Amino acid sequence: MSRLIVVSNRVAVPQANGKVSAGGLAVAVNAALKERSGIWFGWSGKITEQPSERPAISSRNGVKYAVVDLKEDDYQEYYNGFANRVLWPILHYRVDLAEFHRSDLSGYIRVNRNFAEHVSKIIEDDDILWVHDYHMMPLARYLRERGHKNRIGFFLHIPMPPPELIQTLPRHGEIIGSLAHYDLLGFQTENDKENFGRYLESRGGQATADRKAYDIGGRRVRVGAFPVAIETESFARRARHAMRTNFMKDFKASLGDKKMVLGVDRLDYSKGIPNRLEAFETLLRTTPEWHQKVTFVQITPKSRTEVPEYAEMDRYVSTKAGQINGDYGHVSWTPLRYVNRTYSRSALAGLYRAADVAMVTPLRDGMNLVAKEFVAAQDPENPGVLLLSQFAGAAAEMGGGALMVNPHETEGVAAALRRALEMPLAERRERHARMMAVLTDHDIDHWAQSFLDALTEPGRPELDSLLARGAPLRAHSSARITDRQGLQRPLEM
Predict the structure, then answer these.
(1) Active centre residues (catalytic)
(2) Which of 153, 187, 222, 459 could cysteine-pair with 213, CB 3.0–4.6 Å?
(3) Residue 439 contacts residue 372 (beta carbons within 8 Å)
């Protein structure tokens, strides 16, 4: 049986006490590996003076981990520089925040080539590779240059903008165009998939009739939407158990009889936190009857504070939170609790379950698993309401039960928040049931299996003649055929 090699920027190696990372990527990768023999490869998170000569191999709970260290200049140029100050803003539709430097691009390429060299040391001919996220876009290209003909899939966890924005990236063909060296590309939504398809067509790619594959540079690359999911059943169980902890008992006691609005986001300009605070402020200004009856809890761990844009945002949000509390608070009531710290997965599950409303209002997000976790955590007999941005990837699945909002329309979000707080129980139950059905049918195991099935479906000999005649090829059957079409040829776009 073929091994599965997962490659990502960071590797969440379990700690000696058995604890594992609660991040979305870690949950997704563990779901892919738990039933398969495989290795998770990536950066250790350590910065050293000397680069790793070989990956450090360890094993935990039946999964092998292979990690390498980065040098300081690699970290600054590849990670802080190109990945987070160029690719992240452009892929989140914020071209105005991108800050391009040739040295950062060189570092990004250097680290990806280095990763390809290390991966080459551990893969075997029949291994299947699954590469994750924007840090590793050109990895397949460098593996192909080394002669590897393995089936390689890629999943993008963040948005893919339209070609007009992609093309603002200097040397975009060398980075984003390199995705055409994968056999299967997975995106969060159909919109993301179509945006990339139009980008390939702008570079001379030819779509198949069903637009599930593109021929470009002598290769065929298949594309699909695979919305990332959560471990629905276990997270719901975690939320139920969390309500019995001292942490949640103390929290609920501090809340009293006030309704709770919850936001949980990393401090990032894509999350729309300033817009959300302004909407809450609008609610307080226009509906004084809600004064002293609602508390907004915004949990926002800080990230990338060395990047000026993030530091500036931190100052703005902190100032805005203080201003709201100063204008509307009383000695017996703090309207807004703004907390800059990380909570455990169990604590968050309890907070989700206790919330009457969750505000998930990013300006742009690949998926946003907070929306799904909030729904899974709810008591179906007395569920809270999900307020969801139309620009979150989760909107494609949760739109049938969430209150959809445009985060740029402050008054509209404030009106939706009031509606959520006043929504009757019967409507809340109906909306929650619709969303929970989606999460139950499409959990994290289903997501991993769907992608890997699409990647590993063996080719059929009868399709060779169809391809030779130029007939449309079913997207899920092309992996073996593309193995014969010049995989080692450099693809310049």
Answers:
(1) 157, 365
(2) 222
(3) yes
Closest alpha carbon to 24 in 332, 427, 370: 370
Q: CATH topology of 4-228+447-482 equal to that of 232-441?
A: yes
* Kind of pairing between the strands at 294-299 and 184-187: unpaired
pLDDT confidence tier of residue 19, bands split at 50, 70 and 90: low
In sign, the C-alpha dihedral spanning 41, 142, 179, 127 is negative
Domain ranges in the chain are 4-228+447-482, 232-441
Does residue 463 register a pLDDT over 50? no
Cβ atoms 473, 467 nearer than 8 A:
yes
CATH architecture of 4-228+447-482: 3-Layer(aba) Sandwich (3.40)
Q: What's 232-441's CATH class?
A: alpha beta
DSSP letter string over 203-216? TT-EE-TTSSEEEE
Whether the predicted pLDDT of 486 surpasses 80: no
User: Which residue is it, tokens 């129980």?
Assistant: 425
138 residue type, one letter = P
Q: For 311-337, what is the mean pLDDT?
A: 94
Q: Which two tokens mark 73?
A: 């200049």
Side-by-side strand order, sheet with 403-405 = 336-339, 294-299, 259-264, 357-360, 385-389, 403-405
The residue with tokens 């569920």 is 383
Mean pLDDT on 155-161: 97
Beta bridge mates, 47: 70
Vertex 453: Cα angle to 451 and 454 (nearest 5): 65
Contact between residue 110 and residue 88 where contact means Cβ atoms under 8 Å apart: no
